[in-house]
Amino acid sequence: MKIEECFAKFGDAVRKKRVHQNISQTQLAFESKISREYINRLENGNVNVSLAKIIAIAEVLDVEVKELLDF
Prior knowledge:
By secondary structure, the chain is mainly alpha-helical. The chain has one domain: lambda repressor-like DNA-binding domains (434 Repressor (Amino-terminal Domain)). It has five helices and no strands. The protein has helices at 3-20, 25-32, 36-43, 51-61, 65-69. Helix 2 crosses helix 4 (51-61). The longest helix has 18 residues, at 3-20.
């Protein structure tokens, strides 16, 4: 799998978890202390996200990190 595919799959996983929990990008951004613009780019597979940001997002979504990386 190419790295760009991983970015896209991770972004899809975040979006699905966020939407399932009825959380807006703005709310996720605020609670994770990550800009809404970054969240948008992440969900569209356009960023190489750091482990610290992955952990922050997982905490807000109340999921294990591995759930976001299981693709």
